[in-house]
Amino acid sequence: MQSSFFDDIPQSPIELAQGAVVLPRFVGDAMPSLYRALKEVVTAAPFRHLITPGGHKMSVGMTNCGSAGWVSDASGYRYSKQDPMTGNQWPNLPDCFLELAQSAAAAAGYAQFETDACLINQYRVGAKLSMHQDRDEGGLEQPIVSVSLGLPATFLFGGLERTNPTRKILLEHGDVVVWGGPSRLCFHAVNAIQSGVHPDLGPRRLNLTFRKAV
Ligand SMILES: O=C(O)CCC(=O)C(=O)O
Ligand SMILES: [Fe+2]
């Protein structure tokens, strides 16, 4: 993948819906510290493919950091203070993650963003996430901050009903999406990742999703 000199420079926000904003290339200079922290987190709590309550193995590999982590198994979707794979607490939320999430939330109009949970999604080529709402959180008054890294993805952002029309946005390396307030429960999805190789992250997309779980 060719990158150009101006690829990493933050650009003007794009409003997706009321309360929902895309911040193109927001990560900017925070990228190297993000990589280092990510490596530590995924070493302590490796990616795994969770099983949905319906018995399907998710195509996206997942792990978490923070005081609570999102998990799924036969009994349902929920937040857990422990990694069910090891029984250990999830790795702490790195300072650079929190700083990035809070500054993105503020740039999107949400001052004083509180988060206790960061879900890390790893998409290999072909992995996708079907249409869903993020509604397992106790803290629905807080927005969601979602950071895209690596290969690009087509993100679909809809309304409060599954059948509402969707907007289609290409999310690229360093982009951040924030949705909250009237958009907090909007349906969204990620289309299957197309083949490619990112210069830093290889043939994958990573996504960090910050929420207030408890
Ligand atoms: O990967 C993304 O951009 C979105 C992830 C997502 O919707 C989720 O983890 O609930
Ligand atoms: Fe989601």
From TrEMBL:
GO BP term, example: oxidative RNA demethylation
Domain of life: Bacteria
Keywords for the protein's UniProt record, in alphabetical order: Dioxygenase, Iron, Metal-binding, Oxidoreductase
PANTHER family: ALKYLATED DNA REPAIR PROTEIN ALKB-RELATED, NUCLEIC ACID DIOXYGENASE ALKBH1
One Gene Ontology MF term: oxidative RNA demethylase activity
Protein name from the UniProt record: Alpha-ketoglutarate-dependent dioxygenase AlkB
Cofactor(s) required, per the database record: Fe(2+)
Keyword Protease found: no
Binding site for substrate: 70, 77-79, 136, 162
Record-annotated Fe2OG dioxygenase domain positions: 114-214
Residues the entry annotates as binding 2-oxoglutarate: 121-123, 205-211
Sequence positions that bind Fe cation: 132, 134, 188
GO cellular component labels: cytoplasm
Textual note on the cofactor: Binds 1 Fe(2+) ion per subunit.
